[in-house]
Each structure stands twice: as C-alpha cells, then as structure tokens.
Amino acid sequence: MGTRSKDKVVKIQDALEEEHRIRQAFKDKNWSEIKSSDSWVIFKVMSEFVEGFEKLAKIGPCVTIFGSARVKPNNPYYKMAEDIAEQLVQQGYGVITGGGPGIMEAGNKGAHKAGGKSVGLNIYLPHEQKGNIYIDADKLITFDYFFVRKVMFVKYSQGFIVMPGGFGTMDELSEALTLIQTKKIGRFPIVMVGKKFWSGMMEWIKTTLVSEKMIHEEDLDLINIVDTPEEAVAVIDEFYGKYLLSPNF
C-alpha cells in the first residue's frame, strides 16, 4: 500500500472514531451504565492522583519547562531548552516536563546531562506519546487525564519556563496564569522564552484584553519575556532572592 493510500485509510479511521465519539455523547444510557461508567472514571482519576502525589511528594525544588512536542533537535529552541534545564540544575533545581519529545525531551536531556532530577509527566494520546529516554526511571508518570497531569505540574513546580509551542503549551500557560491571578497558588515566576515568537500574542493581550478590561494591566506583570537561557534562569533566581525565599518553601 502506498503512502497516500495509507494516509487516506488513517484519515477515514480517524473520521469514523470521531463520529463514534460524537454519537456516544448523545446516546441515552440507563442508570446502571451511568453508575458503572462514572464509578470507573472516579477510581481511575483517584489512582492517578495517588500515584502522582506518592512519586512527587519528595521531589524537591523543581521548575517546569513547557513547549512543543514537534520541535526537532536541530531547532534552536531545542538547544535553548536543553541549556535552560542544564543551568537550572546547576542552580539547585530539578526539571519537570511533559515527558514527550521536542522541547520536553530537550528539558529532560539538559537536566540529565547536568546530573539533576529529570521528571516526566507523560500523557496517553491517540497516536501514543512515549516518555523520552532522559527521564529518571523512578520519575516517569503517564496519565490518562490532562487535568490530573496539570495539577501535578502546578503543585510541584516553583516556576514555569514556557518555550514556543502550540495549543497544549498555551493551555498550560493559561492555567498557570489563571491560578496565580486568582491567588489559588503562590505568585511563582512565569518566564516566556522567545520575544519574537510570543510578540503577536502579547500585543493582542495588551491591545485587546487590557483595553477591553478583560484583565487588569498589572496582570501583565505576571509574565516575564526573555530571549536567552541565561535570562530565563536569572528570572527564577532573582524572584527567590528578592522575596528571600528558598525553592520548595
């Protein structure tokens, strides 16, 4: 079977699976089906929280690096993420990533190379995302549920480095900003790397969200935008130095 034929088959299968999920959402279920299905989900969610809490409870001070899974090793952002992770370890932090390829792999690689803690919070995806080889064997957790995984990112991180990425990266960035803005978590530093990459979004935030009073202008102070690994790590260090706090307080 040729490449085009294979691609066509995959697209048809994806379309059929999507239609099935949509139909299932509208399907009437009896009480027994609802109860058994919901009970299974509750216990599965609980088990993921328990595993996460047990493995990460004594992880120590860590910084999470977010970013695209699609970035290849020859991309400058890959090298930047690797350098940031290495420098974070040299400053006494461990590194947490989403456990997959791309920027996540680069973050784990840098931490591993520097001899620091390298944590991977992986996620099961339809096309299967495997944990990268640079994660410490005892610090790889694979989740079914994005929301459980995001709780772990936030609960066990003392800062967030946001590299260029797509919808997933923006979701994680928005989650962290929202929780800090609403004071659900402490005001941990958020560092966005790549001024050119993020400039369009930041301009829209300023000219639309702020001007339409959807957010306060001072909310922009929650974000630090830098261009180099050294600047990114300096923001983390300066934050804790300024507030006389030690990581993982």
Taking strands numbered 1, 2, ... along the chain, how are they ordered across the largest sheet? 4-3-2-1-5-6-7
Helix percent band: 40-55%
Beta percentage is 5-15%
The description of the largest β-sheet is: 7 strands, parallel
- The multimeric state of the shown protein is single chain
N-to-C order of helices and strands: HHEHEHEEHEHEHEH
Q: Report the span from N to C terminus.
A: 58 Å
Mean pLDDT: 88
CATH architecture tag: 3-Layer(aba) Sandwich
Poorly predicted runs are none
> Rg, please?
20 Å
CATH topology: Rossmann fold
Describe the structure.
The protein is α/β, with parallel strands linked by helices and 249 residues long. It has one domain (60-242): Rossmann fold (3-Layer(aba) Sandwich). The protein is globular. The chain has a seven-stranded parallel beta sheet with strand order 4-3-2-1-5-6-7, with helices on both faces. It contains eight helices and seven strands; from the N terminus they run H-H-E-H-E-H-E-E-H-E-H-E-H-E-H. Helix 3 packs parallel to helix 4 (103-113) and helix 3 (76-90) packs parallel to helix 8 (229-242). The protein has helices spanning 3-26, 31-56, 76-90, 103-113, 146-155, 167-181, 195-210, 229-242, and strands spanning 62-66, 94-97, 118-123, 140-143, 160-162, 190-193, 223-226.
